[in-house]
Amino acid sequence: MIRVSVNPELLRWARERADITQEDLLPKFKKLADWESGQAQPTLKQLESFAKSVHVPFGYLFLAET
User: Fold this and answer.
1) Using an 8 Å Cβ cutoff, are 57 and 66 in contact?
2) Which of 13, 21, 47, 61 is least enclosed, having the fewest CB within 10 Å?
3) Which residues have a Cβ under 8 Å from the Cβ of 13 and sit 6 or more positions away?
4) Local confidence band at 45 (pLDDT 50, 70, 90 cut-offs)
5) Are the C-beta atoms of 3 and 35 separated by less than 8 Å?
6) Whole-model pTM?
């Protein structure tokens, strides 16, 4: 399993931009709160799925800032 280092603020930005709450995504992404707090990192596949769920290009999650 490959874990991906991603800026937690970008995850939060992408989710809020899509107007989706953490609670809405928790059934699919059990550790979303940990990802957004920086306590855990998603796998590559989880991050790809997250990007699709919040309607942002995958590469946006690796930008230096929002």
Assistant:
1) no
2) 21
3) 66
4) very high
5) no
6) 0.91
